Amino acid sequence: MSKISNVILMLEYLSTGRKYSIQELSDLLEVSPRMIRIYKDELEKAGIFVDTLKGIYGGYVLNQHINIPYLLFDNKDVDIIKKCISKTNDFELKTELISIEKKLATNLLKEKNTKDILIADDSELNVYNKLNRAIKNHCKVKIRYFNLQHGESIRTIYPLGMYLFQDEWWCSSYWEEKDDMRQFHIKRILDCEILSETFDPKKINIKF
Predict the structure, then answer these.
(1) How far is CA 73 from CA 1, 26, 184, in A?
(2) Which of 55, 75, 178, 184 is least surrounded by CB atoms within 10 angstroms?
(3) Does residue 69 lie in a domain region?
(4) 116 CB-near residues (< 8 Å, 6+ apart)
(5) CA-CA distance, 171 to 182, in Å (whole number)?
(6) pLDDT tens digit sequence for 193-204
(7) Nearby residues of 13 by Cβ (< 8 Å), 6 or more positions away
(8) For 55, phi and psi rounded to 5 degrees?
(9) What is the DSSP letter of 120?
(10) Are residues 12 and 58 in the same domain?
């Protein structure tokens, strides 16, 4: 499998909430323990932080919810099925293969459209990654936010979680200036800066 496929597969294993040792992941993905550490670094560069538990019973564990892109067929697989359709003379088999080919083609189109909707551009992806990093480390964040009624403004928020609503990303946060909880649409965050100040999410949860 490719490096990207292995990274996604590793993320799928960790998303179950179970702790995996480096050796377990190495055996499952059929790569060296060194590559598992590289995959972990790649995930963290993308804003997905994997906790490391030390000691004899240590390993990797994922303590954040991630919407994982499933490992689906690609266009090459569809082409192979088409070749099989053209070569077989078995009517029933050909009918089944045509049905499978149509399903795969539809799913590939949906997957492409979903990716286009979720992360529109590099700027939005940058904001998404910074917010995930801030959530992981409980850091305050300064954002430049565009409001449909009042235009742009600078706000200090305490990001608590990311979620999807109608195929778009939102960040549930405590808004310092208003002393209130708000939902911030990622597309409207024009700029994002992680501050050195941290906060205790438990105190915010108790407050609200």
Answers:
(1) 13, 24, 34
(2) 55
(3) no
(4) none
(5) 8
(6) 999 999 998 888
(7) 20, 25, 28
(8) 100, 180
(9) -
(10) yes
Which one of 24-28, 95-99, 161-165 scores highest in mean pLDDT?
24-28
Mean pLDDT of 133-156: 90
Helices (H), the chain: 3-14, 22-29, 33-45, 75-87, 91-118, 122-137, 201-207
By C-alpha distance, which of 56, 65, 54, 80 is closest to 17? 65
Gap between the Cα atoms of 88 and 179, Å rounded: 68
Q: What are 24-57's pLDDT values in tens digits?
A: 898 888 889 999 999 998 888 777 888 888 877 7
102 and 161 in a common domain: no
Predicted pLDDT of residue 208:
61
Q: What range defines the domain where residue 55 resides? A: 3-62
Q: Where are the alpha helices (DSSP H) in 138-199?
A: none
In a domain, 184, yes or no: yes
Distance CA 47, CA 10 (A): 15
Based on the domain organization, do 89 and 153 belong to the same domain?
A: no
Number of separate domains in the chain: 3
